[in-house]
Amino acid sequence: MQHLENNYEKMAGKARALFLTYDQEEIIRRNHLEADEEWLYARLLDLDLRLGRRDAALEQREGESWISCPGINEPMVLLDILCDSKPGRHALGSWRSTLDFGMRVHRALAENGPVSPMEKRFDAQPELLRIRALAMGGMDAGNLGGADHAFILPFFQDLNLLAQFWHGDEEFPPKLTLLWDAGAGDYLRYETMYYALDLARQRLGAER
After folding, report:
1. 133 with 195, same domain?
2. Is residue 90 part of a domain?
3. Who has greater pLDDT, 118 or 3?
4. pLDDT one-digit tens code per residue, 153-173
5. 69 and 127 part of one domain
6. Whole-prediction pTM value?
7. Degrees to nearest 5, angle at CA 189 with 185 and 191
8. Which range has the worst mean pLDDT, 11-25, 26-40, 75-89?
9. Total structural domains in the chain?
10. In terms of residue numbers, what domain contains 164?
């Protein structure tokens, strides 16, 4: 696990260094960002973030204060969107799995592993899923896609995720599935989608 974290930190460091080589004014225009001389401001999921224009340091808002962002997924995902998203991108309003955007060799990364503590918690107390989804700015989508519960979650600007949850029964364990808007490939690279979904699960499962 430590080896993986070190690799992620190296990748995040490379993403920061690459950002500093880009035309920041073009990034601001293309991504419709608020900015001042020191920072670029963006919202990712339920996180208000600011990115240092001189060092690519990432901070998140906590109440009235800004603190250093402790996560690794956040800078990798945000920097990918800001630097590499396509001009004129827009959400399409339909849903696709991560595998639909890339190569099948990554199937193992997308398929369900063991039931997570979060899935067990939502299975026992489904109201917690609703509370958390709405707190993230999500919208109740009823039983969309045949799920027991579904919520549309804001990801970045007009790009959304669809969270679907199925309760467990005698045959199948409880399952949380996250789908992308079909236009997501114009916002971030396929490889980055896995970090983005990991971050979304972390935020959705955060106990507050």
Report:
1. yes
2. no
3. 118
4. 999 999 999 999 999 988 899
5. no
6. 0.89
7. 125
8. 11-25
9. 2
10. 95-204
Cα separation, 25 vs 136, in Å, equals: 29
Please tell me the distance from the alpha carbon of residue 75 to that of residue 195, in angstroms, as a whole number.
10
CB neighbours of residue 19 within 10 Å: 22
Confidence class for position 11, pLDDT limits 50, 70, 90: confident
Residues 76 and 103 placed together within one structural domain of the fold: no
Distances (CA, A) of 176 to 54, 91, 111, 149: 39, 22, 11, 10
CB 72 within 8 A of CB 192: no
Contact partners, residue 164, CB within 8 Å, separation at least 6:
144, 145, 147, 149, 150, 176, 177, 178, 179
What single DSSP character describes residue 103?
A: -
CA dihedral of 104, 109, 112, 117, whole degrees rounded to 10: -170
Q: Which residue has the tokens 């507050």?
A: 208
Q: What's the CA gap between 95 and 109, in Å, rounded?
A: 19
Residue 13: the pLDDT is 82
103 and 10 share a domain? no
Q: Which residues have C-beta within 8 Å of that of residue 188, sequence separation ≥ 6?
A: 77, 80, 81, 84, 85, 196
92: closest CA among 160, 155, 11? 160
Contact 79, 16 (CB under 8 A): yes
